[in-house]
Amino acid sequence: MSLVQRLSAFLRSPRGQQLVDRGRRELAKPENQAKLKRLASRLSSRRR
Predict the structure, then answer these.
(1) Cα distance from N-terminal residue to C-terminal residue, the chain
(2) 22 with 31: CB under 8 angstroms?
(3) Ranges of H-type helices in 1-48
(4) Spatial distance between the Cα atoms of 6 and 30, rounded to a whole number of angstroms
(5) In sequence order, what are the residues at sequence separation of 6 or more whose Cβ sits closer than 8 angstroms to the Cβ of residue 27?
(6) How many C-beta atoms lie closer than 10 Å to residue 32's C-beta?
(7) Cα(9)–Cα(14) distance, integer angstroms
(8) Which of 16, 35, 38, 45: disulfide with 10, CB 3.0–4.6 Å?
(9) Per-residue pLDDT tens for 1-48?
C-alpha cells in the first residue's frame, strides 16, 4: 500500500476525521490565521 493510499485511508477513519475537524477549528481562530499570514509572507519573501 502506497503512502498516499495509507494517508487517504487514515483520513477516512474516525481518528482521521477528528484530526481534520480539530484542524478546521484551529484554522478558524483569528490568531492562527494571522500566524499563517506571517509565515506565508516570510516564505514568499525568501523565494525572491
Answers:
(1) 39
(2) no
(3) 3-12, 14-27, 30-47
(4) 32
(5) 33, 36
(6) 13
(7) 10
(8) 16
(9) 899 999 999 999 999 999 999 999 999 999 999 999 999 999 998 876
Residue the block writes with cell 502506497: 2
C-alpha cell at 33: 490565521
List Cα–Cα distances, 27 to 9, 12, 14, 16, 47, in angstroms: 23, 20, 20, 17, 25
Task: Calculate Rg over the CA atoms of the chain.
Answer: 15
Residue 26's alpha-carbon distances to 7, 16, 38, 43, in angstroms, are 21, 15, 16, 21
- Cα separations in angstroms, 4 against 8, 10, 12: 6, 10, 12
pLDDT of residue 46: 81
